[in-house]
């Protein structure tokens, strides 16, 4: 009888030692993992599941962990570390180069567009230049405008207002009166496909224009370019 009692006490003691030899990982979602921590890096913790020490090594970022309680009783807390130690990636301003057909450039222009802060959307501006000549006619345009990009990710909506300098000769039927130099008011209401990082970009939509001679509300434009 005494031997049975001693054996029971021994099994309980061994079970306690076995349970206390494991590490415990407390996750931010409330889960507690019984584990054997194998490595602690600058931003992550690697471990094996205690019930399967011969199994694979798993990885958690410190952002997923509240604390780790080791078998010897040592406690490491990561609630403060996750915000203080991890560097925050600075958002890069969006810049575009593109060619525009019609639109605020009126006929055909090469343009540069940028945001005024380190953002992919928000307020920015564009400037361009275009020149076409033939049969004694010459047309030069320089569009300048401010615009604001609404939305997130790669699908944005552009609202803009600006002015375009235009110089034309030999075309008395144009909306620019009978040639010479003029400044034309422009607006933009356009869909913009702009990559989150870099790559092919597209713009398309309405660009109303107005001069002292008239107003064209349904003038449109199309742009193809590259975002970086």
Automatic annotation (TrEMBL):
UniProt entry keywords in alphabetical sequence: Signal
Q: Where is the signal peptide?
A: 1-21
Reading the lineage from the top rank, the first entry is Bacteria
Tell me what this protein is called: Outer membrane protein beta-barrel domain-containing protein
Q: Which organism is it from?
A: Pedobacter cryophilus
The opening ranks of the lineage are:
Bacteria, Pseudomonadati, Bacteroidota, Sphingobacteriia, Sphingobacteriales
């Amino acid at each position: 009888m005494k031997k049975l009692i001693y054996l029971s006490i021994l099994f309980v003691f061994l079970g306690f030692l076995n349970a206390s030899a494991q590490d415990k990982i407390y996750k931010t979602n409330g889960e507690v993992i019984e584990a054997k921590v194998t490595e602690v890096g600058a931003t992550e913790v690697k471990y094996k599941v205690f019930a399967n020490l011969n199994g694979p090594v798993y990885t958690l970022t410190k952002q997923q962990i509240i604390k780790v309680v080791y078998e010897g009783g040592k406690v490491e807390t990561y609630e403060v570390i996750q915000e203080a130690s991890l560097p925050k990636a600075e958002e890069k301003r969006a810049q575009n180069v593109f060619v525009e057909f019609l639109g605020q450039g009126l006929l055909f222009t090469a343009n540069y567009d940028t945001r005024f802060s380190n953002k992919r959307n928000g307020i920015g501006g564009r400037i361009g230049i275009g020149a076409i000549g033939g049969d004694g006619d010459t047309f030069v345009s320089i569009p300048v405008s401010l615009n604001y990009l609404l939305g997130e990710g790669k699908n944005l909506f552009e609202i803009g207002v600006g002015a375009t300098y235009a110089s034309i000769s030999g075309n008395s039927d144009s909306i620019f009166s009978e040639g010479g130099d003029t400044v034309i008011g422009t607006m933009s209401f356009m869909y913009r496909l702009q990559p989150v990082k870099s790559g092919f970009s597209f713009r398309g939509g309405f660009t109303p224009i107005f001069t002292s001679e008239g107003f064209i509300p349904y003038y449109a434009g199309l742009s193809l370019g590259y975002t970086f």
